[in-house]
Design a protein that fits this description.
By secondary structure, this protein is of the alpha/beta class. It contains 14 helices and 15 strands. The strands form 3 sheets. The chain has an 8-stranded mixed β-sheet with strand order 5-6-4-3-7-9-10-8, sandwiched between helices. Strands 12-11-13-14-15 form a 5-stranded mixed β-sheet, sandwiched between helices. The chain is globular, with a radius of gyration of 22 Å.
Length: 406
């Protein structure tokens, strides 16, 4: 298992790298690389995300030759008994190409229109390529509401599990045609990580037009080194991540964030160059391509994993130092007596973020009282609730079963 102790090596970023430049590439072997070669071939459930630049040949239109290349590899993986979900970017870029637009639209409605136009061609391309290999595909369009509502989350999970159980390849994308800016995932890297959480994938593969995460920008620094392996939670990686390109909304920052989201359910993440020959087959064989980011701990319980994946919080609770300590050290429920300030407008059962006085996020969870009631009982003991509110719903502001530490 990728979650096993042997995979939780906290390598110094750059300790195992491929060096670019004169005289070819020299692989610096390490225990991390050898462990990685052993572990990845044992995985059986992958989520593979492919970026816009790859799908559309850097904006020139759908690269059908490249799609067929990936499809052949995915078909071989499925033939070997694996389950694969594809998260495909490219709808907006394909829509732009069909409409003859050179620049990505700035208007939300124009972006939604481009997504709707491009999604038709994108799905047709995937379906025709997989039919060549005798496989069916299924289009799955998700919005943030689908994964923030518990019932819809469970429905989406059941549907995806049923599809892969039938040997069908789900092709997932954000429902850009209807999602407004407030409810967007923001990028398909994040969506792919949440899908990995959803189906309990063992490996998240982020195919991109870069060779992986470097310790410096390789476009401007010829001495930049590829980070072959690191812990997903390593804070030093944040300094190495760059911004997204012209076509996509993602960049190394979003890929790093995605790896950390995936790690919460015990999944490792590989960031690899999507145009590399037989990239998926080589990863499955254990070849050390790109950057491997591994989780530092085992998977959370299913409900905790769902909570951890929620991105749309409706409010914030500012905690005193005592409450922060109780949550972090003892894993207890959050009581109103430890809350100093209530921010935002939320209802009972909605997601809120718990922060320390200096703004650091400590936890997030589902509240037992709405914002109005929470403001009245903050700093007070549960014994006073009935006198203040006229009723007592729960003694805790957030029960520990509905709370996840960040």
């Amino acid at each position: 298992s990728l979650v096993g102790s042997e995979m939780c090596i906290r390598d110094r970023p750059g300790a195992a790298v491929r060096r670019r430049g004169g005289g070819g590439r020299r692989t610096l072997r390490s225990a991390a690389v050898m462990t990685r070669n052993k572990a990845i071939p044992e995985t059986r459930r992958w989520v593979i995300k492919i970026g816009s630049a790859l799908i559309t040949g850097d904006g020139r239109g759908l690269d059908r030759d490249r799609l067929r290349h990936w499809v052949d590899q995915v078909a071989d993986l499925i033939s070997a008994g694996m389950e694969v979900v594809i998260v495909s970017s490219g709808a907006v870029a394909e829509g732009m190409n069909r409409m003859g637009w050179v620049r990505r639209p700035g208007s939300l409605h124009n972006l939604q229109a481009a997504a709707a136009i491009g999604q038709m061609g994108l799905v047709q391309a995937w379906e025709s390529c997989f039919q060549r290999r005798g496989l069916h595909t299924a289009q799955v369009l998700l919005t943030h509401d689908d994964l923030s509502d518990r019932k819809r989350y469970l429905n989406a999970r059941s549907t995806l599990r049923a599809l892969v159980g039938f040997g069908v390849v789900p092709v997932v994308n954000e429902n850009d045609a209807v999602a407004n800016e407030e409810l967007r995932f923001g990028d398909n890297d994040t969506l792919a990580a949440l899908v990995a959480n959803l189906i309990e994938a063992e490996l998240l593969v982020l195919l991109t037009d870069q060779h992986g995460l470097y310790d410096a920008d390789p476009r401007s620094n010829p001495d930049a080194k590829l980070v072959s392996h690191a812990a997903a939670g390593d804070a030093s990686l944040d300094l190495m991540a760059g911004d997204g390109g012209l076509l996509g909304r993602g960049g190394m920052q979003t890929k790093l964030r995605a790896a950390r989201l995936a790690a919460r359910s015990g999944a490792a993440t590989v960031i690899a160059y999507g145009r590399a020959e037989d990239v998926l087959a080589r990863l499955k064989r254990g070849e050390a391509l790109g950057t491997l980011l591994t989780p530092s701990q085992g998977p959370d319980a299913a409900r905790k994993r769902w909570l951890a994946g929620q991105l749309q919080a409706r409010g914030r609770l500012v905690l005193d130092p005592g409450a922060v300590s109780v949550l972090r050290e003892f894993g207890r429920s959050l009581l109103a007596v430890g809350v100093k300030e209530v921010l935002g407008d939320f209802r009972r059962g909605e997601m809120v973020v718990c922060v320390a006085e200096d703004g650091r996020e400590i936890a997030r969870g589902l509240v037992n009282y709405g914002a109005s009631e929470a403001r009245q009982i903050r700093g007070r003991s549960s014994a006073e609730f009935e006198q203040i509110l006229g009723y007592v719903d729960e003694d805790e502001l957030i029960h520990r079963d509905n709370l996840v530490l960040v």
